[in-house]
Amino acid sequence: MSHLKDFVNVVEGNKFMVAVNTELYDKEAIVASAYKYSGRFYIYQNESESDPKIVDVFFESKENSAITEADVKDFCNDLIDQQIRIHTTRQFGHIRDLIVEEAFKPVKK
Q1: What is the helix (H) or strand (E) element at residue 19, kind and residue range?
Q2: How far apart are CA 58 and CA 41, in angstroms?
Q3: How far apart (Å, rounded) are the C-alpha atoms in residues 47 and 57?
Q4: Which residues, in sequence order, are CB contacts of 71 under 8 Å at separation 6+?
Q5: In this predicted model, which residue has the larger pLDDT, 67 or 24?
């Protein structure tokens, strides 16, 4: 995980922490991404003590199995996916609302 070492810290073999910059990712994206992993990991998050713009997200394996590099990369990719969803909703959500409104208008006879 050498290329991830700047923002990922393996606490122990079955625990890791990802430091997420809230200037890049909304807290909503962080929570949504973490939720997707709640079946495999115990998860909690804290504001970083060293930088209030950083949210430290801690993962601990529920089965005491070792954390793999793929686990960390999957979370990071999902974080990007959730942020894109948020941006898309902000940009085009009004179009979705118009479509839903039109779809549920009463039918004129």
Answers
A1: strand 15-21
A2: 9
A3: 9
A4: 16, 40, 59
A5: 24
